[in-house]
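Supplementary Note 3. Input sequence used for the single-chain structure prediction.
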Amino acid sequence: MLKELTSLKWQEKATKMALDDTAAKMDEKREIISKLEENLKAERDKIQESKQTLEEIEAKHSKHLKRQEELDSDMRKCKEEFKEFKRQDVKFQEDLKHVTQKIKKLADKVEKDSAKHDALVKEVETENFRSELAKIRAELEPWEKDLIEHKGKLDG
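The predicted structure, written as discrete structure tokens, is reproduced below.
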């Protein structure tokens, strides 16, 4: 029984040592858990801050994206207007070329018509002078006959 008693005492000591060892390990584990919980809390706080920052960034991004879409829309409109202006420019250039050619043709025609007009005016004036000359000769003819008669009388 003594052996049993000694054995039980040794078992008790071993159990007590194991208990102390286990208690020490438990305290260590509790400290580790406490540190891990603090780290977890700090990480959760960081995550929360990151979420807020992300939300702010997303709001800014959304605002900028909306502005970019507006600018893209304006750019498309400007490009369409530019194409239309380009088409109009080509049309106006063609119209200008056509009108310039027409003006040149009309100027040439005016020049030709002016030359014809001048020739006709000269012809009419010449015709008028000839008719006036014929009238004057007709009026002078009796006077010339009288002059010849009077000259003859004076000579003779």
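The chain has a mean pLDDT of 90. Residues 36 and 42 are 10 Å apart (CA to CA).
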